[in-house]
Amino acid sequence: MSRRNTVGYLAAFAVIGMTVVPLLFVVLGGFRTTAQINASPAGLPGPFVWDNYISVATSPQFWRLLGNSMLIAVIATTLAVVLGSMAAFALSRYAFKGREAFYTLFTLGLLFPLGVATLPLYLWLRELNLLENPLGVAIPEAAFSLPVTVVILRPFMNAIPGELEDAALLDGAAKLDFFWRILLPLSRPALITVSVLAFVTSWNFYLLPLLVFNDSTNFTLPLGVAMFQSEHTQDTAKVLAFTALSMIPALTFFVLAERRMVGGLTGSVKG
Questions:
Q1: Is residue 53 situated within a structural domain?
Q2: Most buried residue, 12, 54, 79, 265, by CB count within 10 Å?
Q3: Residue 236 and residue 168 in contact, taking contact as beta carbons nearer than 8 Å
Q4: Are residues 130 and 164 both part of a single domain?
Q5: How is residue 45 annotated by DSSP?
Q6: Are the C-beta atoms of 246 and 224 separated by less than 8 Å?
């Protein structure tokens, strides 16, 4: 094994350790009591205590937060993928003045921090009466997911041979027919990639829901975790169980689509 490979493997193990160890601490901590955690923070469950997970899983509050997060994530992902695929189609298959400038604008959107837009975004949502409304979170989340969606989809669509489009047009298909019936099915790996990224990004958003929601019945899971932690500051084990269960949907979605994500990113890079 070469020295370069050794360094690469060591770096990979370091990254995995920094990612997995905190997750294991959270998950296993939920199977312990707070007294056990205080006595030995890095210890293992012995015996396993299921009460924390059962208490959280049977709580109406947890399922309400889960439903709120799911609704907002589905809306934001749908908007980002639909609008992003249309923009990527126009930027990849149409030649018009300023096309590269528009694409550069989307690329620069990757560098735009949410914190800069906090005040104007709040004022805009208030004028549109979208405060305490799931759309007030979903629409801005979709907007912040658009740049990465377009940046991934455009080169993927651009790599699809133009002969397919010419053949479809000769068969009497319109541009939109080609888009819906041929281009989108062929772009499925990239669409899955951007869908997963948009969903996970929406699921993990904290600042936007905090900006829009004051009523705790509208809170998403990230806000719910913070609220639950403040309400149960003395019960560390139950807080860890709540946090672990709140991570499951996004992690499951990511794991199930991981292989297709890799294919989508590979196709985008080649494009």
A1: no
A2: 79
A3: no
A4: yes
A5: P
A6: yes
Domain of residue 166: give its range. 59-266
Cα–Cα distance for residue pair 218/205, rounded to 1 Å: 14
Tokens linked to 60: 């109406």
- Looking at residue 19, its amino acid is T
Q: How confident is the model at residue 178 (pLDDT cuts 50, 70, 90)?
A: confident
Question: Could you give the CA distance from residue 87 to residue 169 in angstroms, rounded to a whole number?
Answer: 20
Cβ(201)–Cβ(77) below 8 Å = no
Residue 143 lies in a domain: yes
Task: Find the mean pLDDT for residues 6-21.
Answer: 78
Residue type (1 letter), 49: V
60-93 pLDDT tens trace: 999 999 999 999 999 999 999 999 999 999 898 8
Q: Are residues 193 and 122 part of one domain?
A: yes
Q: Are 253 and 264 in contact (CB under 8 A)?
A: no
Give the Cα separation of 63 and 133 in Å (integer). 18
Is there a domain that residue 236 lies in? yes
Total domains in the fold of the chain:
2
Q: How far apart are CA 120 and CA 107, in angstroms?
A: 22
Instruction: Look up residue 147 and give its amino acid.
Output: P
Q: Provide the Cα torsion 68, 70, 76, 78; round to 10°.
A: -140
Is 131 strand, coil or helix? coil
DSSP character at residue 133: S
